[in-house]
Amino acid sequence: MIEDRIRNMLGRDERSEAAITRIQGDASSRQYFRAATPNRTLIACYDPLFEGRDAAGYPFLVMHRLFSAHAVPVPEIVSADSTSGLIMQEDCGNLQLQDALAAASPETAALLYQDAVELMIRIQRIPRSTEPVPFSLSFDMEKLMFEFDFFIEHAILGYFGDWFSEGDALALRMEFEAIARLLVRPEQFVLNHRDYHSRNILIHRGRPVVIDFQDARMGLSQYDAASLLRDSYSRLPDKLVLDLQRLHHEGLASAGIHREGFDGYLRMFDIMAFQRNIKALGTFAFQMKQPGKASFEASIPPTLAYLPRYIERHRELQGAGRILQRVLEGEGR
């Protein structure tokens, strides 16, 4: 059992007294546990992809070293054992940005999100190197179309399947290919966390701490910005979103990363957010098929609700919008 492996990684005098409880994870194969002993509490992550692997090349540990070297706050690693597939980490609590937002005043919420955007800028200012992880990975055409195809398979032909034919799916894929081509701009790529939303940012001692960063890759700066500001789990007021977009744009421009004007930034933000929300919908539709994952259905309507505004503002999205019209009007279920 995984719990037995966790005990074996604790100190000899802690094993018998440790209380080990499962923590609800998100949409991944990783499992998380809290190990509480009389003197400390640790978070144990079991990843079957880490088991038996060379720790030096394991993406989570690679990204942890990179983020730590650039002062990006991440939980401290206490120990890692690839034989058991376990990583023991500092316990930074369970207050997600999503939960902090629900209890915060508008002023406090704005400050929390300003901190999260400043941290995102710090990540995106990390310079490229020759290391294969994460710098050889990117949101290239293959990756973007994989995510679009995942949506077609699991949402269009699966969850919304009563309303769509194979012909609709083919037509939609052609629209998605044109959209993906707009987003493949390697000369503008920066480092992205890749899942930078309100459930992957903990508020620890009043400040944001980043988790779940093992899938980082290069892409447009608007990818992580869309993940945070057009989040499936937390909807922000439009004025706050615009203020945070401006903060992000100005922060990157001052670092010499962005050379486009704010209007150009906003255009690419919307097109990237369309792709990012479509990707999330595919994930939710897939997860709902898994045992015990029905709760993901609740995230589908708020994610769909973002799409009409992007489509209305940008002609490049309107072909896809026409195919998705019934879903967007609430008729698809």
TrEMBL record:
<protein>
    <recommendedName>
        <fullName>Aminoglycoside phosphotransferase domain-containing protein</fullName>
    </recommendedName>
</protein>
<dbReference type="Pfam" id="PF01636">
    <property type="entry name" value="APH"/>
</dbReference>
<dbReference type="InterPro" id="IPR011009">
    <property type="entry name" value="Kinase-like_dom_sf"/>
</dbReference>
<feature type="domain" description="Aminoglycoside phosphotransferase">
    <location>
        <begin position="20"/>
        <end position="253"/>
    </location>
</feature>
<dbReference type="InterPro" id="IPR002575">
    <property type="entry name" value="Aminoglycoside_PTrfase"/>
</dbReference>
